[in-house]
Amino acid sequence: MEKNMFGFSLTERTIEIRPPMTTSFNDVSMVHGREAVKEELLNRLLNESSQEPAISIVSIVGMGGIGKTTLARLVFNIDKVKTHFDNKIWVCVSEPFDEIRISKAILESLGDDASKLAGLETILQHISQYLDRKKFFLVLDDVWTEDSKNWEQIKDCLKCGSQGSRNLVTTRKENASKTIGATSMIMLGTLSKNESWSLFRQIAFSGDADEKLEDIGRKIVAKCKGLPLSIKTLGSLLRFKTNSGEWQSVLHSEMWEIEEVERRIFPPLLVSYYDLPSTLKKCFSYCAIFPKNHEIEKDELIKLWMAQSYLKDERNKDMELIGEEYFENLAMRSFFQDFKKNKYDGSIESCKMHDMVHDFAQFLTKKECFIVEVDNYNESQLKSSLKNAQQSMIIVRAERDSFPTCICNENKLRSLLVKSQDPRSQLTQAKLFDNSSLRALQFISLRNIQEIPREIKKMIHLRYLDLSYNENLKELPKELCDLYNLQTLNIADCYKLTKLPQEMGKLINLRHLIINPFIIEYMPKGNEELTCLRTLENFVLSSSSHGGKACSIGSLKNLTNLRCLGFSGLGNVGDVDEVKRANLRNKTNLLSLILDFGNGSSERDEIIVEALEPPPNLVKLCLENYGGKTIWPNWIVSLTQLKELRLFRCYNCEYLSPLGKLSSLESLFIGMVYSVKKVEKEFLGIESDATARSSIVFPKLKNLEFNYMYEWKEWDDITLKGDELVTTIMPSLHYLNISYAPYLKKLPNYILQSPKLKQLEIEHCPILRPRYEKGIGEDWHKISHIPDVTFFS
Known about the structure:
Elements: H1 2-5, H2 35-46, E1 56-61, H3 68-76, H4 79-84, E2 87-92, H5 99-109, H6 120-131, E3 136-143, H7 152-158, E4 166-171, H8 174-179, E5 184-187, H9 193-204, H10 211-223, H11 228-238, H12 244-251, H13 266-274, H14 278-286, E6 296-297, H15 298-307, H16 319-332, E7 337-341, E8 348-352, H17 355-365, E9 369-373, H18 379-385, E10 391-396, H19 405-408, E11 415-420, E12 440-444, E13 464-466, E14 488-490, E15 512-514, E16 535-540, E17 564-568, H20 576-581, E18 592-596, H21 605-612, E19 620-624, E20 644-648, E21 667-671, E22 678-679, H22 689-693, E23 703-707, E24 714-715, H23 724-728, E25 735-739, H24 749-752, E26 759-763, H25 768-772, H26 780-783, E27 788-792
Parallel strand pairs: 1-4, 1-5, 2-3, 3-4, 9-10, 10-11, 11-12, 12-13, 13-14, 14-15, 15-16, 16-17, 17-18, 18-19, 19-20, 20-21, 21-23, 22-24, 23-25, 25-26, 26-27
Antiparallel strand pairs: 6-8, 7-8
């Protein structure tokens, strides 16, 4: 009524986001004005003295957003640092300080599995064994604690290292640097005027700077007061704007006058934030639910956005694809960083938020997002803090017997994410399932969950349910199938859960069903009703009828929206015509297909593979436990978009198919193909040397791996006159890994001469290693030009 009285109208502001001119998410640090301090830091890390203490600790101190972590990363990855130390270890300390978590992180960086270790003393003993008399370089990033007692046991453990070992600490607090016992300190200042402009210009302009925009840009940079994070944030915002009016709007924004937050950081973030459409604002602020330094899984985040109704299906575009666009948008504006990418296709799998960006997100949500550590809380204080909370993450770091009752009684909560970091956790949560307001519920790694209460049916708005890694979960109630709004059900790694409810067909809005292969005994009937499914990671094909309860592969006929599909137990299929009724070829949205036959012993597998026939736009194909003698169905040449191919446990295959004919292939993994003794030129898809001259073989292949090829002895080379071979076979190859090939004698020249080969790994190959080992191998000269060569014994 008041809106109408004042004549207000609601409009949705939209902006056009252009993709950057260079490759997205390059994630290469843009470091300006730090050359002198970098050399000073290297000098303190690499120069040794007999008078130095047993543990030499160097600290970098400066305010948030000044570039401490960037500088530490810069020196951490320099080649002369890599060669100077026996071990390099990176640990983000952050808040709250947790000795066990930090110690486990150190141990895992050394290559050990700390997940099953309990007790600080046990973990520290393992660290001492690894570092005994070794020269190590340990970075402790983002230290806050000023209590010296927190460090005593860890410091004593690290004394086992040899003289010349170094610890590098980054912190905002000078007192924290003194507490940890820093022997030298570098106070990191702001960038100069020229350095600030250089950084801003590199980000904001894709080419030459427009004179009008440059004048405004210099004034904006001056307001950033030399802080790299502020400069990077605004540069990322303005590179998508092309007229001076938009730049003037940023320059004259009132956000620069804000006083109730950190004036040097939040104003630029606010300017960039208020430039976002309303939907993106919600998506960004939701990220406040994660703790600082949390590794955010991209796909999980998009599904959580979906659960909150932040994403809507558009014409010809799924919510998931819209979520991908939103994620890219936020990443291009520097709200995300530290991207981890898939080694095969380069896609982003996870990211983190800078701690100042996280503080900003918390500021925006005004305590609506709440993070609590269950092992260290006061019930009354927690109840007060949760008063306005809509999203909450609970982290269990130590064993407890009960769930905070005040959380169970909060009817405003829309998201509740519970993650255990202690394998002994024994939380109970029965009352929680009375909460009908939740849109997203996650219980991960909680030992005491054996079944889900029938009361879950009350959660009528639930869209996201993640029960993964609950190793004692045995059963899902049929009442779960009343949650008709459910979009995501994740029950991965629930190894005692062998059956799904028979009423699964009622989940008509389910889009993602994530389960492990060969754990669920069969897929219940009604599967054909799940027409919204985008992800069906393991469609289980049973060897028995289970009393008519199981559905057949033909029930997939109407699931036309599938994008990711996996089969388990394809060897159990009895009727090939039933395979054809699945009609995979017409599932034009299908991008990823996993074919796991289970027993891998039948030549009949070839007939089944031929009958499956996926659509030609398939991007990823995996073939596992396959019993056929050949891996070349007639339809494979039609896969003109195929980028990744994985062949694993194809036991009866004696020859590799002409995979070089797959012109779009970027990653090829071949493992446990035991019967192959020789890789011949037919593998390249060429018939003669003459053909090789006139074509490019594997033109886009970047990653090539051969693992566990126990009978492999020879890899045919091809001899051509002249140098044409170097540019026609695998011209894009970047990474080659050969593992557990004990009888392989040598590598072909056409591989070693691939012009872009940057990384070669040879693991457990007793004949290859002495042949190519640096300085002593007879063929070392053939690989000496490759920048990164690693041997593992």
